[in-house]
Structures
1.
Amino acid sequence: MDHALLSDIFKTSLLTRRFEARIIQMAMAGELPGALHAGAGQEVGQIAAISALNKDDYILYGHRGVAYMVAREVSLASILADMAGKEGATNRGKGGVMHVVDVPHGILGESGTLGGGFVISVGVGMAIKRREPGKIATYFFGDGTSNRGTFHESLNWAALQKLPCIYYCENNGWAVSVPTSSSTAVPDISARAAGYGVPGVVVDGNDPTAVYEVMQQAAQRARSGQGPTLIEAKVTRQMGHFVGDQQTYRADADKAAAKDPLPKLQQLLLDAGTLNETSLSQIEADVQQQIDTAVETVRNAPLLAPEVALQDLYSE
Amino acid sequence: MDHALLSDIFKTSLLTRRFEARIIQMAMAGELPGALHAGAGQEVGQIAAISALNKDDYILYGHRGVAYMVAREVSLASILADMAGKEGATNRGKGGVMHVVDVPHGILGESGTLGGGFVISVGVGMAIKRREPGKIATYFFGDGTSNRGTFHESLNWAALQKLPCIYYCENNGWAVSVPTSSSTAVPDISARAAGYGVPGVVVDGNDPTAVYEVMQQAAQRARSGQGPTLIEAKVTRQMGHFVGDQQTYRADADKAAAKDPLPKLQQLLLDAGTLNETSLSQIEADVQQQIDTAVETVRNAPLLAPEVALQDLYSE
Amino acid sequence: MATLTYSKAINQALAEEMTRDENVILYGQDVAAWGGIFKVTEGLHEQFGPERVFDSPISENVMVGAGVGAATMGLRPVVELQFADFILTAGDEVFFKAGMWRFMHGGAFKVPLVIRAPSGGSGFGPEHSACPEAFVMHAPGLLCVVPSTPEDAKGLLKEAIRLDNPVVYFEHKLLYAMRGAVPDTEYTTPFGKAVVRREGDAVTIVAWQDMLRRTLKAAEQLSQEGIEVEIVDPRTLNPFDRDTIIESVQKTGACMVVEEAYRTLGVGAEIGAMLMEHALPYLDKPFKRLAIPDVPLPTSQHLVDHIVPSVDAIYKAVKDLVS
Amino acid sequence: MATLTYSKAINQALAEEMTRDENVILYGQDVAAWGGIFKVTEGLHEQFGPERVFDSPISENVMVGAGVGAATMGLRPVVELQFADFILTAGDEVFFKAGMWRFMHGGAFKVPLVIRAPSGGSGFGPEHSACPEAFVMHAPGLLCVVPSTPEDAKGLLKEAIRLDNPVVYFEHKLLYAMRGAVPDTEYTTPFGKAVVRREGDAVTIVAWQDMLRRTLKAAEQLSQEGIEVEIVDPRTLNPFDRDTIIESVQKTGACMVVEEAYRTLGVGAEIGAMLMEHALPYLDKPFKRLAIPDVPLPTSQHLVDHIVPSVDAIYKAVKDLVS
Ligand SMILES: Cc1ncc(C[n+]2csc(CCOP(=O)(O)OP(=O)(O)O)c2C)c(N)n1
Ligand SMILES: Cc1ncc(C[n+]2csc(CCOP(=O)(O)OP(=O)(O)O)c2C)c(N)n1
Ligand SMILES: [Mg+2]
Ligand SMILES: [Mg+2]
């Protein structure tokens, strides 16, 4: 795959990784609530997948990190504001980091009850099929979430109506402390595609090129009216489920780092000469600067007025 | 298959067919509510399936007729009493014909919301696995019902815990007025088994021998702790969805009769000499007599006391 | 004014709004070729075609949830649940997705969704007969409509379809065949305005749908004995018009609610508490609730009749109250 | 008496009942090896093994529905939903399967099922923070428990597990760390008996769980000003002990409910209506409800604090009422 694109994916992944690290730092310091579910290790795949879509395609996401929003250039400050409950928050203190929303950038939000995105995203598919033909709705969800009944109803619905939807499952082998093997009767979530007559594809979620390609095929299929594709990306959760999770339940926690795609991608780009030490430190510096600016912005932003709690329920 | 068993299946099917005909007659005459969903055409398969189980195995059923209960020798009078709201009703006026229950005969009832049986039956599976090992819980449901989210959650659950459950889908091609092709993304419900790592078997539901054999295999699998099987029986709904349904939506309604397994089974038994004209008319007479007695019993039974409406919610 | 049935009035509202706005779509089990199991949507599939009127699988969760998603992106879906009870079968989608999607995303979306929910009636058993209004009224974010006449059925549904907020529209099964005058000219009925269906001074009775019909019958009998009850039909439960009830109670000094929901925390509970907060000085008689005595609806009709407030039970309750 | 936390009291109740009856099983997401996301079930997996304590998939419908099926056939399942809100995600299974399975089958089954539902708290957002007691109290067939102390948490859970009817057991997240005395000897706490947590004559306040804790704090301040409020903790909402509340109101002449549910048709509505039916003559002050102002719970803490009744809000409300 084109190295310009690969290094874009790298830059966005690095930005996300550092940004989440800062969020965790601030959470530990008590400056932010610890509500983040770090995406470390999964962001490369997430960003590669999104880069295979058009900027105006729609995205619904799970709770696994903020790469989805970063990839769509949602301002870092607004994401921090969502966590801090300050002016500039995308959901005005209602949903925190779980419900970051930015419709102009195609970020349509998240369902707090897992798997709600299955039903919302096919509805979005129904709407764009009629009103914005050519666009796609992609829903990112975890392996554990695929056990919700909504998965079944949604895939049948999308397949039947040939909706422009992509189901992107991030199988990281865990649902909080529960290994996939103790919650899911099949090792491959993609095997479930057979029940709906749609393609089920397994891809190495640590390989941005592979992810990019399967996403392109799924997008092509969706745009040409052939309906949804179920993609299963095998990935590794680098950190605990949430900030502060010691992963006492996870014997192989230490082995995770070896599977981290970010250093691998960096090395690949260095070896290919697409990056060198100078450009790399330039990128790092640039990333730090973006994050620092965002943090400053939010530190200086006022808290949302308490009365905002009473707003946004009904549209007037 | 052993002809003694085949003619038992025939006798029970005939009894069911005639009994439902009488129920419809009484409903048309206003003597009973028209709440029956006639099982005509599906009862041969239903009864063949049940005959492959032990008498103390448990059954949860859908709404498609009363063969399930007749096969388990639930008294015809008590089924009529359920419809009439009279003394002797198995559910005491609470559930009518939809919720006929007879625990000693292994009839565990029905969920009024379709697909509720998926979750109840795996719970029964959990209990018998621990308390009555060797027994099986079978849930009979329709093709349309397989689109409920509970299908997915239940099969994953049963497969994971290797529960002694059998999923018996009666695919009659319709959900009320909606053809399966407009509600279900795959022609074969059994294809969905792949998503749970369990066997998915298609069988001709009009062929009692074939049904009997797949049920035996599924039962053997369940009893030996290997978990559930998803069986899909292709069947034909002979009548409307409910009493009085003119099936204006069904172009091929007239073609259904040709697929009726009951006359075929009768002919087979006559050709084989297992039955002859005399034994047959003897059976018909016997069936009529059983039905007449049941109808008489219920006509003479008193209505349930109105206050019964307030009972049976909580166990004291 | 033409005379229409309640179900035809609903059908007309759907046809008119679908004609007016191509973003309005309609789906549910059996609503297309067959016109719905209660025949409410007859002819719409033929008139508007399969892209706008279609049958759905037996998948209540996605039926409602997809409606929410579609509504956030510009469609105006009308989802027919085959029975009102199923709002609990699709509980997450009704209460969290429809009720809260806009809120949890800080107002980024509008959710112009209508969930049509055939309620009440009987003989269908515990999971097909309830009037689950109270669940909806308690939940934030869901507008709740309970039309009692063909005119309101049409006007309130047209209004519901045009609003940018999710609406649970309860249509009572026993009212489908009810006939009544419906304006020939275009109209919508605003939410949040109760109507006094009958004037009187003996007691204020709040009732809607089939219970309103029964209360009106009882009122006739009572009137022959010189007892004139005032009957208030709230028409919508969220928004809820307290003022009309309070004003009426200021006149009558007593209030009774007749409803088809379970008694405990039925809509009557809110009315009682609300009056105790805002009208205590005017109340010279104890509050009274006629409702289902906290059991599910049985299947057998004569058991149902024992627990659903009857014309006679309403009549007796008023006599007790005024004597 | 040992001093235990609320969560340890729950843990003990589970351990004792599982030891007493091998039919008691426990499952839910993360309850096994990890001891639950709120660490309530720690050690039980090790003690009772994987057949009796196990993790479940993210499948709320089958979690509850299978519990009902298992209960009808002799097991006594305790199902942990990760958040109380999810009773609506499993709406069909909670309200129809658990609540009505016995009824619709004419009493053929017993349903000894306990659904543990961590409620309230905040910062978890609109779908993870509610106190959905009112939905359960309105629905027929479900017993409803709201323990407010470690002692009651243990005694009511042991009772719930032994009863043959389905129980929704709400455990308040903000109370998990609360410490209190718990009898060393075997005991269970009966359902349907409210307790007066503080005696007074100024006004009767009904409150439970975190709102009870806040009300007790407010009562201290009020007491310093010579205002003595009487505080009633219902302990169970179904069955509901009206008499204790009515008796108290006969003494105080006024009633206020402080709750963490949505205001409209919250539990307070039933209490208000019930008093208007049975205690009107004794009421010389308007009824008052402090509750969530009919919006979902936001995520940001300072927004949450704006809508959840605070000690100060309770204090002020009482002052208004008595002056
Ligand atoms: C319906 C529902 N059940 C449970 C939860 C609590 N919960 C939040 S995240 C999570 C684990 C999700 O696992 P998975 O889908 O694999 O995503 P991952 O965390 O691994 O990225 C659970 C159980 C929830 N939010 N919604
Ligand atoms: C959850 C739910 N949705 C809808 C209904 C209404 N309903 C009753 S029977 C039926 C059709 C069922 O079709 P299928 O499962 O194929 O069984 P069949 O009638 O063909 O035997 C429908 C939609 C219901 N009872 N429950
Ligand atoms: Mg996972
Ligand atoms: Mg069918």
2.
Amino acid sequence: MRFLPDDAQRDFARSLDAMLGAQDTPSAIRAWAAGDQGPGRALWARIADAGVLALAVPERHDGLGPLPVELAVAFTELGRHAVPGPLVETAAAAALLTALDDRPAAAERLPAVAAGKTAVSLCPLSPATPYALDADAADAVLVVEGDTVRLAASAGPVQRSADPARRLARPRGGTVLAQGPGVAAAAARAAELASLLTAAQSLGLGRALLERTVAYVRQRTQFGVPVGSFQAVKHRLADTLVALEFAEPLLHAAALGLADGAPSAGRDVAAAKVTAGEAACRAARTALQLHGAVGYTEELDLSLWIRKARPLRDAWGTPAACRARVLAGDG
Amino acid sequence: MRFLPDDAQRDFARSLDAMLGAQDTPSAIRAWAAGDQGPGRALWARIADAGVLALAVPERHDGLGPLPVELAVAFTELGRHAVPGPLVETAAAAALLTALDDRPAAAERLPAVAAGKTAVSLCPLSPATPYALDADAADAVLVVEGDTVRLAASAGPVQRSADPARRLARPRGGTVLAQGPGVAAAAARAAELASLLTAAQSLGLGRALLERTVAYVRQRTQFGVPVGSFQAVKHRLADTLVALEFAEPLLHAAALGLADGAPSAGRDVAAAKVTAGEAACRAARTALQLHGAVGYTEELDLSLWIRKARPLRDAWGTPAACRARVLAGDG
Amino acid sequence: MDLDFTAAENAFRAEARAWLDAHVPAVPLPSLETAEGFAAHREWERTLSADRWSVVSWAEEYGGRDASLLEWLIFEEEYYAAGAPGRVSQNGISLLAPTLFEHGSREQCSRVLPPMARGEVIWAQAWSEPEAGSDLAALRSTAERTDGGWLLSGQKTWSSRAAFADRAFGLFRSHPEADRPHRGLTYLMFPLDADGVTVRPVGRLDGKPAFAELFLDRVFVPDEDVIGEPGQGWKVAMSTAGNERGLTLRSPGRFLAAAARLTALWRTGADPSDTALRDRVADAVIGARAHQLFTFAGASRIADGGAIGAESSLNKVFWSELDIALHETALDLLGPYGELADEAGEAPAHGSWAEGHTFSLAGPIYAGTNEIQRDIIAERLLGLPKGRR
Amino acid sequence: MDLDFTAAENAFRAEARAWLDAHVPAVPLPSLETAEGFAAHREWERTLSADRWSVVSWAEEYGGRDASLLEWLIFEEEYYAAGAPGRVSQNGISLLAPTLFEHGSREQCSRVLPPMARGEVIWAQAWSEPEAGSDLAALRSTAERTDGGWLLSGQKTWSSRAAFADRAFGLFRSHPEADRPHRGLTYLMFPLDADGVTVRPVGRLDGKPAFAELFLDRVFVPDEDVIGEPGQGWKVAMSTAGNERGLTLRSPGRFLAAAARLTALWRTGADPSDTALRDRVADAVIGARAHQLFTFAGASRIADGGAIGAESSLNKVFWSELDIALHETALDLLGPYGELADEAGEAPAHGSWAEGHTFSLAGPIYAGTNEIQRDIIAERLLGLPKGRR
């Protein structure tokens, strides 16, 4: 056992972090929120160039995957930089198309997904999940209902999320892409991957929130001393770190479980999802409180991160659903 | 509106506090736990002399009551001093006997209750409440089952509680004291009073825990400064005070509601019960943590207070039951 | 000890309720933090004022009803229960007016208060500065003595509602030679459209311009707009911070109404056997009731001639945490719709849960952070040593 | 990155499981914190030791199996899953032995370790003093130089298990002239039945004499029982505090087993639609798994030649809070039986939930309070200023 990212995984994360850090992601996020996907798609292309999307696509469709562990590592960095767009959904759609084993449908789209040319939104339509993320910005929108997968005809009107970079739509109409008993199982596997990668985003988001807040309280002074020298501030940040540090191994174990097709993978993903999601929410609350009024303004780039935490916590598995799943008897 | 204890209520509380403070209650508690009820019953007699038990008994049976507000004030002080024995149960039994309107049964016992000569245990027997508190030490044990009140024949074997001063027994056999459609309603009213007075005990207990912990951290030094100068310690104590300060008005309002027979009284009692019970548990955890190892020893008298918090929180209405009651549509 | 209202109080409640029934807009006004919403809310203040409901606790000569604190609480309960609009004059009414009552001249009161009551002049507060948030004694903006008045210079931040307001009030360093940082400050009122004032709106978390930054460059303020003695601004500002204000900054009526809406949401939309959500709804109901009762007790203490000093810190910590928990419960109850921004077409209850949630998140920060409130509780109510924290 | 065990590790697990299946007492032993239970647990140590299961990670010459850290974790998982008794030798094995391995002489190791492994000598720790709890540098007990050894005087408190143990180890002030309070201390071992030692048992919350106070009056200790250099005791004690110990003070196996018992309790006794309880059970299961995985990651880091320094503070905060939450959930699941003391005849699971709860409450206090752990996390892992707190 060596339950740590290996050198290649670490280097991959570091190079993604460096690449994304050199981009102006806040501007891309703000543009995306305003309906201008240009900068976001440019970022998307760079992420694809780095090989991230290919990790979700099998080799036979010009990909490198599926590699859930490397995807989790990569999506942690995407979360750290709050990259906008249906990245999780595109990776999950790749898993769905792969699992459907409908060669033409997969062959038609997966090479373009791997290359970063196609963004896909995906939505398991139900009362609990009526919206498809960024459907208006996607090149294709897949809708799963029961044993059917549809390719939606249009995105429908967009609803704004509390996270301005999340654009929520109710996809309409379209044609049936696949139907039959295998669809639900394939969709469930895709949803597990989506849940895992959302958890990874939460973890990265939470780490970024913590790091920036630590940096802020070290330099901000009140009452003649750095705010970070107050014990109440220190302890709050310490608790935030504890929450994040114990979410990470759950995430990695869940990724390994998905990679191995372990029977407990569904439970492991649920455990990682709720823990990382709650840890990021805690980090967001900490960031908001310790930045004080400045953290409460949309001008501060960090507010883009703060507002992401809660929607990510609920996307692809609410805390209640995840906790129920952890105790569910089956696999 | 003058939603504050009046001078008479305040003086009553102060004189009870002074009287109990002059007794060696820790010894009485330890003796009670060991099965020696002598010192506890002596304390009981003084409490009755102060008029506390007469507050639960109507004038026609030589009492001064029923006066739920004054009872709540008094039981807050009994809780502050962690007085052992089935005091809540005796007051509730008085309410039950009064409500049953069975003059002989009431006339036989209530004057002795008011005079402090009769201690009564009371138990609404159900899977959730199988034990009668201190039944072995009581002069009478009333058991309510459905539409029947029994006078139990014996206490049965005693189970030790995590609070050593609470002796739990399963009363056995006995004779039927009352039966019929009025019993359940009378028992419900008695249970509401028991819940209110348990909440009052929790509040007093929590206040005592907080006060002693504040005193301790002011004098205890570590790292060259009083422990109470650390911000983490200060904030924890501040949060404990907040919890207690907002429980008190709920308690007083619930007592007023019972006194007035307000339709919302049941909900108000439940709100007070869960809030005071949780506040006392928080105070106990704070006391334990901030006393450190010394708080974890039974030698410290405060441990007698610490161990009371959780059983009181659950007695006569668990937090879950109280929260459900708060949202119940009826009265 | 009682919780009884007098016949007069009950009549006051009935009158308020009837008026609100007749006047509260059927469709919620647009968000207070937008230009359109600000105008609509200003108009609403005029409507309130026309029937003397905008400042019930003030003297009649200034537009009020001489209502007692308890009557004010009753009015607030009815106001929020009726779903009436947010109060755009809140800063003026709850921060500036009490200061004027205590330290203002009769002339100042007569000049400033009636237009405030009518919503004709909306006031913004100008306390914080970039380097003086929690640490208000670190203020740097200056008031320089000039002929017949003062020249204000410097930068103020987090000036709530200043994006659309008419005038502002705040503290300025007038006596830089003072020996301690919280001395030598002066409390002044100034127009936001004066020469030398630049107002830069700042969006809050949901993007609404709920604040502004103010840049002041030798803005002239006549002596008549100084409140209290020059150099005594700290005392003037603090003297009204602790008493009624600690009880009334956020009225119980607000949380009672929110808890009632939450309960209705739970009853209509939630699985009643979901005890995890049920417990959180119950806690919100209990918390709102506790806050109301705590406030009644505080009002009784004030009626007895007592004061609410550091106890207002208990109140601040309690309601700010209650408000967040209540709104987070609502968002969880709303499931996928809890994520929607308030302006989203499908946002439940016209987006008011989303806006309420955003607003609640600021609670532990403004009006003295909860960290500072806990220090005050520990030091002043529990007697713990001051220490360096 | 993987979570795979080698064939040898799996074989080790199978061997441990088989042995435990065959040897773990069917009826739980009496509480470790009673005289009777202590004797029974000492006997159990002998049983473990006879087949070399008492100290698997030690060298074979001292009674171990040269097991790796990972094998130790495997053993612990199997041990607690089998419901095996608590470890009465825990203090010696986890606190004294690592110190001897690093700083003890070969002679000391040979003399002290084998009887420890066999449960023949049970060790108590003697760190704290009345005025030196969290602030260990404030120690006052003295070691005075004498012919061929040292004379120990003073008072030690909270000496876990000293009521029944044979020997103790701790720090004593040997060089009072040292310039800083944590210098001038010496690490010594001494017998609890020596002349001049008075042991006064102290009951913990549930009344069990889990600690003792030690009064020392010129207790002679020969030079051979000094560990490391005289005057260097602080360094000696601290050098082993941060590495593996931070990972292994409470093994993941303990919490995994407790979470499994909790889940079983929930499945058999609880209303499955009670989501409030369900969520807490799920959190315990998730927490135990997270703690296991965090430990695997730490073990991997150590295997890579890395160190676990301040990260052990993360671990301490996490498991101590997990342990309390887990046990409080159990007590709530047990309804009215959750109140029963462990020796009550009707106490569920032979009172082990009650005893576990009592034990868990001490978690945030011992081995460095959680307040201090959070200071360490903030200062050493997050780089926040030390400050006066």
